[in-house]
Amino acid sequence: MERVIKLLEPPVPDPDRTHGYLDLLPEGPGDDSIAQRLMRSSALPQIYERLWRPALIGLAKGPLGPSTAQEMALIRDLLALSPGDVVLDVACGPGNVARELAPAVGDAGLVVGLDASATMLDQAVMETARSPYRERLEFVRADAVSLPFHAGGFDAVSCFAALYLFDRPFDALASMARVLRPGGRLAILTTRRLPGIGPLNDVFGQLSGVRMFGDDEVTAALAERGFTDVRRRTAGLMQFVAGVRRS
User: Fold this and answer.
1) Which of 10, 48, 100, 180 is 20–30 Å from 67 (CA)?
2) What is the average pLDDT across 203-222?
């Protein structure tokens, strides 16, 4: 955890570690969409990794989309991790993606999971205690739109199945770009608009709190924020987007 504290900006001299993670949001995020309230509930974190995510994201990816195992292999490929890398998993939920990335960074590496939900992080800490790679994993409760880390502190950043929940997703992308070192890799899994239904995408988003991104919206946002080698793969209503921070 001391390694994480050294990454913080501005420095926090005595952060709250009471629950097994660094809590930088003592007052809570205060979001109120249906989806955001679900993520902060006490019940969802307990079923998220085994039931909720495979069912919901699996349905959104469609019958020809990658399985969860293939999805995890894809993120490892997109991030091209090496031993010693320092990785940030934004909106980590119960830590499922962070734990998948931990083997690739070796004993000298570090994976930091960040989320605004205390209940998700409680579950992440509990699940990670059983991981053989627990010494490489730490968690922080903070705002994804304003990441509390110094510039260039991470070799790779992931944000899987969460960008569509943020009130200011493009500010979050800018924040991810800021904390990446030059040449660092970013990988995202997010939604894509359903073709042929036009404004109904926006109606669904307003009612649920889940934003549906246009096909070129995220790739263009990454290019505008200093990313090169921007790649995109679609699967039903989901899209995988990756890029490299310009040197």
Assistant:
1) 180
2) 79
